Amino acid sequence: MYIGISKECYFLIELLHRHTNINREHILLCLKKIRLNSTFSELEDNFGISLSYASKLFLRNLPIISGFLKPFIVNLDKNLIKRNLPIAFRHNYHNVSCIIDCLEIDIQKPSKALHQALTWSEYKKGNTVKYLISCTPNGLVNYVSQGFGGRASDVTIVENCNFLDGLQQGTCILADRGFKHLEQILHEKGIKLLRPPSVNAGAKLSKTEVRQTKIIASLRIHIERVIRRVREFHMLKQHSVINTNICRVLDHVIIIACALINLQDSLIK
């Protein structure tokens, strides 16, 4: 509830303290800020320190904490993924190694006109930072990209992050229609893209295509559930606008949130 770590995994605080030499209270301050999006005034009262010192601790320690937790976001071998496939994937979609989608985080309007233009999201009608998130079929986050301005398309983000470098030949990726322009790039790398059939203006889908669309949507729900868990960290909630000063550590916030949800109960029972 307060820091995003279950009681069973609370020993992680001690491990963090031992490996990073960050004071335990300062680790809790950082995690509480991400989980509850507490203001620095609240943290000042909670931890008995000045407002400016609370802000300084958060910005200074976050990269160190994310560096320690990043190994929990593991890019698994496709054979290992196949051995742990949920039942729904085993018949026709046993080659799927990951499911991808983009996550948009609202940010304050930047002061510079160039940054305003780069972060403007036509979809959200505001300034945002976008991240590519990938999870395995059983809901384990196995990749999160660095942040891109909201102006960037989903395809542009995939092309410009190092996601494809970590994929093996023969891998099958599950995505929505927004990634359709990726097919040619992935084909050249020996990677298959599985997505719902495209809908042309004025044309109707066949019964087979409608059935396929429903099946893929039911399988893609796992990445939606992962993103819902990420949004449970209040700093990353819908319409929770990130302060300009914190934007520079937003990549670290996302890494910490994804690492901690990998330690939570499995998405698929």
Automatic annotation (TrEMBL):
Known cofactor(s): a divalent metal cation
One Pfam assignment: DDE_Tnp_4
Coiled-coil region: none
Metal-binding is among the record's keywords: yes
Limits of the DDE Tnp4 domain: 100-262
GO molecular function, one term: metal ion binding
Keywords: Metal-binding
The protein's name in its UniProt record: DDE Tnp4 domain-containing protein
Organism: Parnassius mnemosyne
Taxonomic placement: Eukaryota, Metazoa, Ecdysozoa, Arthropoda, Hexapoda
